[in-house]
Amino acid sequence: MDRLMGLDKEQFADRMQQECRRIMDQVAEAVNAAPTGNVVSGSEMAVRDLMDEFRRKVLETAVQMRIDSTESSFSPSQGRGGQRKGRQGAVRQDHAKRLRQD
User: Fold this and answer.
1) Which domain holds residue 60?
2) Which residue has the higher pLDDT, 90 or 46?
3) Residue 22 covered by a domain
4) According to the model, what pLDDT value does residue 70 have?
5) pLDDT: which is higher, 73 or 79
6) pLDDT-based confidence at residue 5 (cuts at 50, 70, 90)
7) Is 100 helix (H, G, I), strand (E, B) or coil?
8) SS (HEC) of 56-95
């Protein structure tokens, strides 16, 4: 594989929409749980952590989707190239006698 193919932007947005909604719900809960008069300082750390989690999930998903799109376009019939050194098959009888016996 010389180069990764691009990911489908629409599929990516669709896949992340549910995750975005989940994080935004938790942000709203954190802000609502903060005490009156200290809304920012009472929710800032929780919101920061949620956004870090979302950022990580977005990047992870985008990279995985790009890898998946490349792998799905790979044709196994192309093989690895080069010459084959041998062929897989049954163990010859004389070789089987030399195998380790436990």
Assistant:
1) 1-71
2) 46
3) yes
4) 80
5) 73
6) confident
7) coil
8) HHHHHHHHHHHHHHHHHCCCHHHCCCCCCCCCCCCCCHHH
